[in-house]
Amino acid sequence: MKLIRYIKYLFLVLVAIGLVVLAMANRDPVTLTILPAELALWTGVDYAIELPLFLVILGGVVTGVLLGFVWEWLREHRHRAEAATNKREARKLEREVKALKGRDNEGKDEVLALVEDAGTAR
C-alpha cells in the first residue's frame, strides 16, 4: 500500500515540475479580447486584458476540467436519483419483511422462531 502512495506522490511531483517548466517557458504577455475587432466595433464592447501565456493555458485547462465535472454531474443525476429511489424501496421492503416475520413468530418460543427463520432463508 505504501508503494502506491509513493507512486502517487512521485506523479504529483512530476506534474508540478512540468507545470512550473511550462509557466517559465511561456511568460510572455498575450492580449485576450472578448470579441474580434470587427464585432467589438459593431457591439461597442471592446474589452481586452494582457496576461502571461501560461495563465491562459492553465486557465483553459482548469475551465475545461470544471466544465467536464459539471457536465458529468448533470448527466449522472438520473442515475443518482434512481439509486436513491431503489435504496428507499429496499429499506421499506426490509421493514415490511421484518414486520411480517415478527407477526408469523408471535407467541412462539424465540429459539424455535429463529430456527424456522433460518430454514426459510435458504
TrEMBL record:
One of its GO terms (cellular component) is plasma membrane. The chain crosses the membrane at residues 51-71. Keywords: Cell membrane, Coiled coil, Membrane, Transmembrane, Transmembrane helix. Residues 26-97 form the Lipopolysaccharide assembly protein A domain. Residues 76-110 form a coiled coil. The keyword Coiled coil applies. Pfam families: LapA_dom. InterPro entries: LapA_dom. This is Phosphate transport regulator (Distant similar to PhoU).
